[in-house]
Design the sequence.
């Protein structure tokens, strides 16, 4: 993550500007999938118990393809930019310590009903505070129902 | 084969909980010993640090025996960046600690095979046993040291077993 180590006082201007830009460029709503019920025990650890997930709505966000796929069969990659204020709201609601803790729990992101896996996360900062979260996503391969 | 894989994992997990109760992780909202089966967890871009990750790879079967003998290769991966109080300067020591822990986890090299799909788990008639660990050289990526150990797990396929 890029860090802004300036000693200026914090101002939410960068976060507000980012939110405005995200809304003006589409302002999608996406969902972060995180485990709904804490499943413990042998069965959960060896893949017998089905894990249930809850969808955390995140908005505004922008979703776009990173590049045109060059190789046959390779999964396409996408970039998702999410408002830092939306992430902060969910971190607060779930009483987590940081956005990293939230993303560490996430299984992936659902966009228009399609599931994507998170490959990398970056958070550009201004005044020492993240104003945007950039997620690199990969299309999840089809799974048996 | 699945019973053998499950038994191997649960045996190592229980031994780790006894050997080093401090090696824990928070995964899917649960605090548990620092060992996981890669194929039973969500896909992650980078392996978690300071935990053992079991990855099942090759499978061969010897059918010229009264019971089919399955040979499953298990790659045990682990990585560490040391501890924060030591600014990561103890990463070599942390890796060595994990090497020693893994050797202890794998000894003794057998366990009774269990069927964990039933509650409570049912003990089967044959054991699961495994070879000594074959360690790879350390891989350094920025501030992280990583190593893997390959273990071959043997198990007889009992009649009616999946």
Sequence:
């Amino acid at each position: 993550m890029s860090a802004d180590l300036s000693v200026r006082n914090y101002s939410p201007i960068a976060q507000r500007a980012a939110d405005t830009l995200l809304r003006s460029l589409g302002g999608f709503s996406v969902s972060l999938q995180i485990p709904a019920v804490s499943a413990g025990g042998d069965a959960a650890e060896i893949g017998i118990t089905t894990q249930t997930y809850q969808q955390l709505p995140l908005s505004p966000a922008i979703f776009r393809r990173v590049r045109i796929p060059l190789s046959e069969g390779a999964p396409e990659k996408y970039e998702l930019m999410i408002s830092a204020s939306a992430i902060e709201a969910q971190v607060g609601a779930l009483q987590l310590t940081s956005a990293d803790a939230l993303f560490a729990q996430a299984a992936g992101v659902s966009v228009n009903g399609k599931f994507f896996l998170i490959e990398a996360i970056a958070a550009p900062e201004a005044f020492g505070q993240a104003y945007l979260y950039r997620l690199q996503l990969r299309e999840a391969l089809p799974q048996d129902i | 084969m699945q019973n053998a894989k499950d038994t191997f994992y649960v045996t190592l997990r229980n031994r780790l909980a006894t050997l080093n109760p401090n090696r824990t992780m928070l995964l899917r909202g649960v605090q548990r010993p620092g060992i996981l089966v890669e194929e039973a967890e969500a896909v992650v871009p980078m392996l978690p640090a300071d935990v053992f990750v079991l990855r099942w790879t090759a499978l061969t079967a010897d059918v010229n025996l009264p019971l089919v003998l399955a040979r499953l290769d298990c790659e045990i991966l682990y990585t560490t960046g040391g501890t924060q109080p030591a600014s990561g300067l103890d990463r070599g020591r942390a890796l060595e600690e994990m090497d020693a822990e893994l050797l202890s986890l794998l000894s003794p090299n057998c366990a009774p095979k269990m069927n964990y799909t039933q509650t409570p788990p049912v003990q089967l008639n044959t054991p699961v046993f495994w070879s000594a660990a074959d360690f790879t050289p350390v891989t350094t990526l920025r501030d992280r040291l990583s190593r893997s150990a390959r273990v071959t797990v043997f198990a007889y396929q009992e009649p009616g077993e999946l």
Remarks:
- Chain A touches chain B at residues 35, 37-40, 42-48, 51, 105, 107-108, 117-120 (CB under 8 Å).
- Chain A has a mean pLDDT of 84.
